[in-house]
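Hi team,

As requested, here is the filled-out complex form for the succinic acid run. I kept the field names the same as last time so the parser does not choke. Let me know if anything looks off before we queue the next batch.

— J.
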Amino acid sequence: MHRSDYLSIGSGVAGLYFAIQIARGGATVSVVTKKAATESNTRYAQGGIATVFGGDDSIESHIRDTLDAGAGLCDAAAVETAIGEGPRRVQDLLALGAQFSREEDGQLSLGREGGHSHHRIVHADDWTGREVVRTLLEAARAEERVTFHEDHQALDLIVDTDGNCCGAWVQHGARPDGSGGRIEAFSSPVTLLATGGAGAIFASTTNPPVATGDGVAMAYRAGATVANLEFIQFHPTALAHPEGGSYLISEALRGYGAVVVNHEGEAFVERQLRLGSLSTRDVVARAIVAEMKSSGKECVFLDVTGKDPEETRRRFPNINKMCRGLGIDMTTQPIPVAPAAHYLCGGVRTDIDGRTDVPGLYVAGETAHTGLHGANRLASNSLLEGLVFGARAAAHASGNMDIRRIRHAPPGMPEPAKPIDPDLAKRAGETIGRVMLDDVGIVRTNTSLGRACGILDELADEVAGAGCAPADLRSRLTVARLVAHSARSRRESRGVHYNADHPERDDENWQHDSLMRAGR
Ligand code: FAD
Ligand code: SIN
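And here is what came back:
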């Protein structure tokens, strides 16, 4: 059994920033992370961090843009907290050594993305996530009170008989089918879940394979309330190339002047939407899907050829490198793109200090539902969310938990069960990805959602009857079912949830969060 004052599950922006704050306060913290500590959604962030740094911008304007994108479901306190505390957190990143892009006069270079009324995206070219991870990992590794456990996957939270979370069961060195390896208890009076998103429940996603929704699944099993899981944000412009793996083509490229065009070169998004290519992602993604359907083609294009080639290459070295590797010169050729699942707007319900309804369990980052995003996240608000609420969770937990009071005595070890047949695991994984994309994607209907729930529920019974599923598959199945059932229940369209049988927003009946708790 491992013991520490605090446990962080995940090494993205939220988990790392939490660990640094805890160590700065003088306590010990274990960071367990599924693969290498560098691997996370954070690592792949391109556009940057939305925050207000003066000029003609203001906190009020950033708040307004966030509320507009959120389509009536944002929590005002969460929005004001995240945006109000954002500048201080980004200053702290700079103090830790983050190298963000600057103008010739030394001021931070500020980009713009969809839904933002000002240039306010702090970035490191188009490698922002890599720079954030480098900075935070260096700072965390410099703290002797932070201990890293890489290739350690949390399987379940440990909840005592009084309902307190007192750590997690963690597996190390398992085979791909989930068998073997060691299962150990990481015992701690305070556990932060910061396991990121769940893009991997869809067959096409911008997320890396670690994003299987483990935190949402574990918290749900432990009795925490989950909220608004139907709100899955699709990014309008992922690379559509057989070898591109849904690699993201940043919205910052549109902020810089790129335009979405169809196979005839027509800027259809500019024609259809008031804010053109810089509208929020929900409407741009739907316009692209409609164009792909009417043309019968599998992609549209992002055209940046009108901009200065030198400047384009300098501002977007990461995207340029990826495109060049696939034989696409983005300065002379339009880039083929299509929408892909990108971000989980809902998650485990927390207050603005990261607390859940399970004592001892805090959640921050993409796994959390703080109320910041409502029905649609404003671009580049999530690195911000991870920083602000990761820090707030640390401050609240260290100010309010008497860590000496908790006994480090988890209940008995989970029974080892026979692993399911690898063929079933493969088929189940493929089914989840396909059903979610086809039936619970950008455009949903009553029929598609009913079908998805039926298929996923049956699959869950089949898998449960066959033995123990690999942890990733178990999480994907749990979260996919929660997303599908939540989407099926919401009989309206709002933000990124669009049901063609209920195409209007219905404030009278539906202006509230969708809450789910195991057994209710
Ligand atoms: P993550 O960064 O995803 O970290 C989760 C961590 O938990 C990982 O280390 C993972 O390995 C670990 N983990 C998962 N399950 C387990 C388990 N069972 N046990 C142990 N460890 C586990 N947002 C912006 O604001 N600006 C952007 O420019 C931007 N660009 C993006 C580009 C891409 C391609 C993607 C995919 C996302 C982008 N986002 C962006 C979203 C943003 O990156 C994420 O929402 C944010 O980084 C999430 O941070 P996190 O700390 O919550 O989770
Ligand atoms: C992007 O760079 O387009 C991604 C930004 C985000 O998801 O916030």
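Two things worth flagging: DSSP finds 16 helices and 20 strands in the chain. The chain has a mean pLDDT of 95.

Thanks,
J.
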